[in-house]
Amino acid sequence: MREAGIAGSVAGHAKSEATRKAALEIGFCDEVFATATDAVKDADLVVLAVPVGAMAAIAAEIGPHLKPGACVSDVGSVKQAVIEAVAPHIPEGVDFVPAHPLAGTEHSGPHSGFASLFRNRWCLLTPTPQSRPEAVAQLRAFWEGMGANVDEMDAPHHDLVLAVVSHTPHLIAFTMVGVADHLRRVSNSEVIKYSASGFRDFTRIAASDPTMWRDVFLTNKEATLDILGRFTEELFMLQRAIRMEDGEQLHAYFTRTRAIRRGIIDAGQDTAAPDFGRVAAAGGATALKGKE
Ligand SMILES: NC(=O)C1=CN([C@@H]2O[C@H](COP(=O)(O)OP(=O)(O)OC[C@H]3O[C@@H](n4cnc5c(N)ncnc54)[C@H](O)[C@@H]3O)[C@@H](O)[C@H]2O)C=CC1
Ligand SMILES: O=C(O)C(=O)Cc1ccc(O)cc1
C-alpha cells in the first residue's frame, strides 16, 4: 500500500506490543494502537487480518466504532465462515466486502510482509448481496493498486475452489511431513538432506502457522472433506495400480496430470494505482483512513 502510494496513512493494531513495535520500526504502519477500536476510528478502509476463527470477536469489538461510509474487508482464507462471523457486526451505512489475496508464505508477523507480495497474484473478492457495487469497485482498485489481479465469485464457490487448490494440498503436505517424521528408519536429517524440491516444499508448508490452518480446516470443513474424499479415492486407485503392477494405468494417469499442469498458464498484469486515502493497518485489523 505504501509503496504504491495508495494509502494516505496506515494505522495498525496487534495484541502484542512486540508486533506493534516491529510494525512501526519497519515502516509498515504510520501509527499503531493497542486496541482495535482506536485503530479503526476515522478509517475509510478496515482490513481484518486475523485467523478466521478470530474474525467474529474482532468484528464485534470494532463494529460500534466504525466511521459511517467506511468499508470493512478481510484477508481470511475461508469466505463463508468470515461472512457469517463478520456481517452481523457491520452497522448500517458501513460496507463489507470480503476478500482473499492468494499470496503468502509459511511465515507470520509483520516481518513476513514485503511490498511485492501481491504483485501478479490473485485476490478474490466475494461480495455479499449487501455489498454496494461502489465499495466493491473501490476494493478492487485497492488490490489492483498493489499489483494483484482481481476476480469476483460467491463465497461458497470460493471455498470449494480453495479446498482444491490450497486447503487440501496443505493438509496433504502436513500429513506427508508427519509420515516422514514417524518413520524411524529414515532420520529427520536424511529427510532434509536428501529431499528433492517437492518434499522440501512440503516441509516449508508444514511450517505454516498452526492456528491459522486449524481455523481453515474447522471453517471450511465440508469442502475440504469433499475434496479429501475424492483425493483418497484416487489415491487408493493408484495404490491398487502399483500393487497390481498396472503400468499402463499409472502411465495414463501421469500423462493426464502432466497435460493439466501444461495447461495452466501463469497470466499476470500490472495495473495502475488507484487514488486512495489514509490507511490504518492493524496486525489483526488494517484500516484505511481519509485522504489527508
Ligand atoms: N499467511 C498466509 O500465507 C496467508 C494468510 N491469509 C489469511 O490471513 C489471515 C491472517 O494471517 P497472517 O497474516 O498470515 O497471520 P499473522 O500471524 O501474521 O497475523 C495474525 C494476527 O492476528 C492476531 N490474532 C491472532 N489471534 C487473535 C485473536 N484471537 N484476536 C485478535 N487478534 C488475533 C495476531 O496477534 C496477529 O497480529 C488469516 O485469516 C489467514 O487465513 C490469507 C492469505 C495468505
Ligand atoms: O505458502 C504458501 O505456499 C501458500 O500457499 C500461502 C497461502 C496460504 C494461505 C492462503 O489462503 C493463501 C496463500
From TrEMBL:
The family database entries (Gene3D superfamilies) matched by this protein are listed as: 6-phosphogluconate dehydrogenase C-terminal like domain, NAD(P)-binding Rossmann-like Domain
> Under which EC number(s) is this enzyme classified?
1.3.1.12
Q: Which reaction does this chain catalyze?
A: prephenate + NAD(+) = 3-(4-hydroxyphenyl)pyruvate + CO2 + NADH
Instruction: State the UniProt keywords alphabetically.
Output: Amino-acid biosynthesis, Aromatic amino acid biosynthesis, NAD, Oxidoreductase, Signal, Tyrosine biosynthesis
Q: Where is the Prephenate/arogenate dehydrogenase domain?
A: 1-272
- Name the top EC class: oxidoreductase
Pathway listed for it is: Amino-acid biosynthesis; L-tyrosine biosynthesis; (4-hydroxyphenyl)pyruvate from prephenate (NAD(+) route): step 1/1
Listed under GO biological process in this entry are:
tyrosine biosynthetic process
Domain of life, source organism = Bacteria
Q: Which GO terms describe its molecular function?
A: NAD+ binding; prephenate dehydrogenase (NAD+) activity; prephenate dehydrogenase (NADP+) activity
Q: Which InterPro entries does this UniProt record tie to the protein?
A: 6-PGluconate_DH-like_C_sf, NAD(P)-bd_dom_sf, PDH_C, PDH_N, Preph/Arog_dehydrog, Prephen_DH
Pfam families (alphabetical): PDH_C, PDH_N
Q: Which PANTHER family match?
A: PREPHENATE DEHYDROGENASE, PREPHENATE DEHYDROGENASE [NADP(+)]
Q: Which NCBIfam families match?
A: PRK07502.1 (NF005694)
Task: Family membership, please give it.
Answer: Belongs to the prephenate/arogenate dehydrogenase family.
**What is the protein name for this chain?**
prephenate dehydrogenase
Organism encoding this protein: Falsigemmobacter intermedius
